[in-house]
Design brief:
- The protein is α+β, with helices and mostly antiparallel strands.
- It has a seven-stranded mixed β-sheet with strand order 1-2-3-4-5-7-6, sandwiched between helices.
- The protein has one domain: Aminopeptidase.
Amino acid sequence: MSLEVREATVADAPALGALQIAALLAGYSEFLESTATLPGVAERVQWWRTELEDPGARAWVAEEGGTAAGLVSIAPGELRWVCVMPERWSHGVGTALLATAEAQLPPGAVAEVPEQDRRARRLLERRGWQQAEDLGQREGRVAPEVRYRLGGAA
């Protein structure tokens, strides 16, 4: 199947919310004792509706055969999310999405990822992002995080 990456619209919010929760449940269960603190699909669908209405934010969805396989979103100077359906991990979906986002981000853009999310960290590092700062555990976050910078710029 051919992978198509296109800009997401508000109409994609239900698919993006479901995709994101599926990816988070599978990925974060590898390092969280409990995924009970993660948001539900309905909450994420509403978040995506709001996000996609924000003129400063952009998102793309990767589709295979008309089905959402992954998503990426950015805000000015920031990579917000890269999520891929677990059955599509290690098939180039995340790489394609990240390349799309990077084309829109300035050098020195930041991404914050859970410290123990090895999959996300490897993806960023393969694409030239460099760890810049240990953020630790912050209020409202499910795990300690690290900050990466695109190209390692300060």
